[in-house]
Write a structure and sequence with these properties.
The structure is a homohexamer. By secondary structure, chain A is α/β, with parallel strands linked by helices. Chain A has one domain: Ureohydrolase domain (Arginase, Chain A, 3-Layer(aba) Sandwich). Chain A has eight helices and ten strands. In chain A, the strands form two sheets. An eight-stranded parallel sheet of chain A has the order 4-1-5-10-9-6-7-8, sandwiched between helices. In chain A, helix 5 links the parallel strand 7 and strand 8. In chain A, helix 3 packs parallel to helix 4 and helix 7 packs parallel to helix 8. In chain A, 66% of the residues are buried. At the A-D interface, helix 7 and helix 8 of A face loops of D.
Chain lengths: 290, 290, 290, 290, 290, 290
């Protein structure tokens, strides 16, 4: 007597009912308590699922259908409000379990800090891990107003773990001078303003390597993603971001996990940002989960 | 590995996982295609569930907790877009099944026309059925621009089935002269503008009888329910509506089913209407399901 | 081949196609350039017309139908943007014409200053004119930052014309000490906070006299009228305002003109304010145009 | 005593007062009852007219002025809420009349299904009709959840009438695999993602032929048209769409009718979508009506 | 060359330029990181100041003008994002300084937890302190999902400090059964649903005592305060809250500090909530700071 | 005891506390009373400051930091509501003072007419002044509905002062035929639709000359700036506008003053427009103030 959830907006459209048989697992990380400007991304994962029912299941870009990929939507990880450290630990533990079960983690944020415990867990499993990072912001601060774990530090922290040379940032258009300098001095790749063209140059160098990909929705121009905490003019279009996803799909990298973060629905009454996010997730699932 | 739905906003807070053991069943009727003014109530049921996680489970009004009532949330009934007749038939069939299983139907609308097939099914089961109707509008038209099944006709249609003398409308502040005249001539009860005081007078006369209760959220003043298709000034407060619910709970009537309709979230950016609706549903469950 | 305007939202619902045969004339005064806080009331008249199609034509309060009143909707008076003085002159000329044709002027604002040239024209026609004024604000300043014609001065200016003793303000909850003092010293009636009860006391004293009635929508509490330039807590409900309209209808005063001003749609995404305004206009037409 | 409608937002700016003398006729088709996701396009035509007063009458793109084109704005066709079949019939009858009077039909939607009865009527008049279709979606389903007449089927249905080889779709980025396959197998033209470049290649092949053009506003990226039922990332810019309109104007095709559909104002609080739609209509009138 | 701040919205209207000479000090506490539902109250204090320029300086309720009260607006206390414990410590230190300087603290929230360190500091200064608490929620949890410092615990924590018998809650309509039971067992005063009448009974018993007053804006009905984290139907009107403020002003209690919390502007596009909050602050300053 | 304003949103981020030591001065011109369509830009300057706290102080485009530029934020110039002439005079006087003190004026609008008194004052100081104008609209009317001072006339009026040959407009996509003709006949430069490429051609011809730059935010496409009075499809992206700013910074022109006008926050609930405006101001300060 319960109506089918598959088209209900309660799980991502066409998610598989069975964890065991699935190759990838979607999970929400509804945390936004360390953001310095506008909170609200805690409601991002739920909204992305809700609007996913407006998607077609077929991608005319990739000529592939969601029926061709087995993924499970686990819902949102329950996190303790206002406690960043414990939240990160809970996420880290959960990802360890997923990886033990040989699942590809597919995270929905939440503020960008939630990517850190995921990347740490993934880095423990894959020795040779590289991270591809698309974002408006460097997120390379060592600490933010005295706090190590902040939405401004996750890329720096993962660089400390896997080495700056293994981190590739694209689309960056905001940061402190010190952050850009640190990246330069430590051999970390930063492509300012652009994503697609520099990515195409980097991808061949990562051929065959395990790669974790973290995308902050604000890499898009505010015109394409008004529903996020920090809107910063001069970003890329959703067309360019789709093309970047397809370029990765066509490359030889081994995508071992990915996330999309910082969707904050309350700032976007047309739900354009969440709709775009759900289409991006569809393309990532179809292009990256093999 | 799937996180608990009970506090996720995917089902009404504290709904029971098991249909068989439940006494009442919540279901959404996401239809809005016959409305003449502003559509959008198709998204009402989902939003009411989503915001229900903001509710406490305990009612200080009734000194009762949702743990004390077993109800199952079945999700939204899939309805064919733009086809009113078939939608009504699907709803009617579903309610027949619920009633056969001895469940109390608890409907979430959707436009008011969805109440008609529910009331018809309930009337088949209970010979002596009375209907309590709270609404800004009479909904007593015989047809609307030539169509018999419209959001303006459900109360007339059920009056035709159970007899106008068994229908009690409260809070009415909008309608055609012909509708008020028809009610008067046919012995139907209409309380204009007010709900609580006239209801208190009517309730003793319904003692022991099976009663179906249908509430259009626009019985509330627009100040209390801006998120609905037709906002009409001069309505009651949510306090008066809560008191009416409690008066029914304290009376001797036998509530055999109920619904709350016409919540249209897109017109209410604070989600005040859906939050109020979810609190009303909590009070109805706690007060009416015994 | 042009579809009927009567139900189109382009004119107030059920307005008469013919000026000559009409007793009352609705006109918009789309001016908001002297407001000190939030502009936007220039779009009030158009929105009130647009949403009027959601109204029933029949009033269950007055048992009267719009078919029983002949009124013509003339549209919005074209006014020169940013030029208050010339705008007031244009309005004044227009009202003189209406009065010469023996029409009852029914104005839609626009900021409150637009009422001044209307009242001046009406005062020239009716020697013994009284003004009933419902508002959150005194509007009794002699000038505002040096300017005589401002949204803060219209009631003072008309009091200067017809004498303060002939002005009756209700529902006032905001003003400078000097304004309240001036009113007191000059024998002008001000009822603070309340409308209905003091109005009922005043009405018998105005029996048979010609009365112009000007209502600022912000006499309503912000809960009932969020869509206005200055929202000020502690106002009356739309029920009380409806009752005040009906009390005037039942009294012996001779309503020779009236207006409803300060509806600013952009601050109210549910259009609750404009819907309420259009219902108030319906009740005023049905109750006051005899 | 009625103020001029030409600049009032009640009719499209500079529309001609006289049907007989006009070459083109604008009409609204306020229907949205078969949409599967977000309703609201029933209010599209009225909003497009309302904001048209913000337009200049002159096009610096085409060096032509609205004074140079005689078009009549007939208002919205009254349609029965929730009854798709009868609505389509009413539209079809109306268009037959327009065509009999040798007018060029210029439709404002409403959901995309409203284009079907227009195209059918036009196809009866012009033997050799071709259809140019710009849209995010294929709209090529044979039926949608069992219903033949749905917002997902109009292009398929018109292809069945005039032959798939005479239908040219541009900008498509969403659909079922079956739809793309059907198009391919039946010789229908589909340009995925792009509009301008492929259109420029197609236009010479249509030289001199009668062409009906139907544009779903969602061919634009959500950044350019957030106010529509289904927002789908990766669309074209309004600049590209303007350029496409101008390319058609400069070509040798004979535009015998056109429409713009799916503007749903409630999802766009800046009215950017309706403003863009009204500018597109101006360019189409200036470029296509000769 | 810098323009005057007094009417700029950068400080509360008419705040005094000089700390030393002021009797009361306004400060913002822009923290919202422990809320369980909707964040955003961090922007409350700035918005309350911004809209304060729409206020008159004179209160017709109290016949007193802001010129008669010397208060200083210190701006927002800089707080570390996502770190509740340290934030509370910073607030506590600041209040200790204010109290040492014999200022009356006037706090603007922020989530309700910010009141706790203020009340603790005040309780250290005044042995016989009583707390008056107006709120929709009990806020009496001992901990919330394991965390002692949460938006659900501040009243319990202060009750632990000053003794439950010295805490008086009004308007409560939401909480767990355990919270109500704890209050009852420990002699704490809770008035359910109502504020004004029970307050009038309590005030004489507090005659002459030092009292801290903490008001959660959600004690108001959502109709009167949609812009808050948790909207809960059935609250009081802003008229009743104004009357409660005036009742305290007229009583013999010695108000030694007060705050207004939980204004979250993003959920209220008409800024009705912030406007109401700024008027409430004006009345509190005029009525309570002697 | 007052908290630091530098990061408070009350002044533009990192503005210098001292007027005398500053090279440039930011001031708001909160006037919108002559706009013909949507008012609201009076709140633009305050919102631009408020959201500036979300900016980084460092520009990765220019490799320069706000610490490197001394600018003072003077707040908003108090202007008399609804009185255009006097407002212009007040602005003109203020700019004369700034120029006497050798400051570079940096204006925030407000409607575009506010640029006129600034440009007039600047033209008095610099004989050889050229004006660079980026806008969707020509603003070249000689008068607007009979009024010389209107938002539609400022560029014409300044052209009358400094000679049309010294005015360079870019990005224009809206105007009357007469305006384009006048520009052509009088040797004024107008680049239709495009900004960056034609600007690059013009800049070398202005080498060494004093240049005032006025930017109407609506030169951006509505996708990039929905929050403005007149949204007009087909504009440039914020990337192109940023590149234009950087091209000027890299050129040999001597920027002696500049402004950014027509930000109207109420039409943009994500504050994307104001955020973009504040980033543009940062880039202009860093690139143009040497």
């Amino acid at each position: 007597m319960r109506f089918d959830d598959t088209y209900s907006g309660k799980v991502f459209i066409k998610s598989h009912p069975n964890y065991e048989e699935s190759k990838a697992v979607i999970y929400g990380m509804p945390m936004d308590w360390t953001v310095s400007f506008r909170p609200g991304s805690r409601f991002g994962p739920a909204k992305i699922r809700e609007v996913s029912i407006g998607l077609e299941e077929y991608s005319p870009y990739l000529d592939r259908d969601l029926d061709d990929v087995k993924f499970f939507d686990a819902g949102d990880i329950p996190l303790p409000f206002g406690n960043a450290e414990q939240s990160l630990e809970i996420i880290n533990n959960y990802i360890h379990q997923l990886l033990k079960d040989d699942k590809i983690p597919v995270g929905l944020g939440g503020e960008h800090l939630v990517s850190l415990p995921v990347m740490k867990a993934v880095a423990e499993k894959y020795d040779d891990l590289a991270v591809i990072h698309m974002d408006a912001h460097t997120d390379l601060r060592e600490h933010y107003e005295g706090y190590e774990y902040s939405h401004s530090t996750p890329i720096r922290k993962i660089a400390d773990v896997i080495g700056p040379k293994n981190v590739y940032s694209f689309g960056i258009r905001s940061g402190m001078k010190e952050e850009f300098d640190w990246a330069k001095e430590n051999g970390m790749h930063i492509s300012k303003f652009e994503v697609l063209e520099p990515l195409k140059k980097v991808l061949p160098t990562l051929d065959g390597r395990p790669v974790y990909i973290t995308i902050d929705i604000d890499v898009l121009d505010p015109a394409h993603a008004p529903g996020t905490g920090t809107v910063d003019a001069g970003g890329i279009t959703s067309r360019e971001l789709l093309a970047a996803i397809h370029a990765i799909a066509a490359s030889g990298v081994n995508v071992v996990g990915f996330d999309l973060v910082e969707v904050a629905p309350v700032y976007d009454h047309s739900d354009q940002t969440a709709n775009t996010a759900s289409k991006l997730i569809r393309e990532m699932l179809l292009g990256w989960v093999r």
